[in-house]
Amino acid sequence: MKLKEIAHSRTGDKGNISIISLIAYKQEDYALLKEKVTPEKLKDYFHDIVHGKITRYEIESIGALNFVMEDALGGGVTRSLAIDMHGKTLGSALLEMEI
């Protein structure tokens, strides 16, 4: 299945750091997200985009995972030549990941 079947996402950025929150629609799917969506899997999935460290924070109370991805926006909004320099599409791309 694709992540979009059990979760939605929100994104943010700060400089050259992209932040993606992955939030389960149902609390009972949160354990599956924790098991299947690891920093290592995201590093592999976004290998062409994320060149730095990925840190995962677990927010049990709302069934969410928060990923902080360093060196992910081509230098940041004021320096990047990318069309999506804020990284907003990374959340949508993550939801297409097969688990």
Give structural notes.
There is one protein chain. The protein has 99 residues and is α+β, with helices and mostly antiparallel strands. It has one domain (3-95). It has 3 helices and 4 strands. A 4-stranded antiparallel sheet has the order 1-2-4-3, covered by helices on one side. A hairpin with a 2-residue loop joins strand 1 and strand 2 (17-24).
What structural category arises from helix and sheet content?
alpha+beta
Helix content: 10-25%
- Report the uncertain regions: 78-86
**Strand composition percent:** 25-35%
Number of spatially distinct domains? 1
Cα shape? globular
Rg for CA atoms = 13 Å
Order of strands, main sheet, comes to: 1-2-4-3
Order of H and E elements: EEHHEEH
SS field, number of helical segments? 3
Task: Describe how the helices and strands are arranged.
Elements: E1 7-14, E2 17-24, H1 30-36, H2 39-45, E3 54-59, E4 64-69, H3 89-95
Antiparallel strand pairs: 1-2, 2-4, 3-4
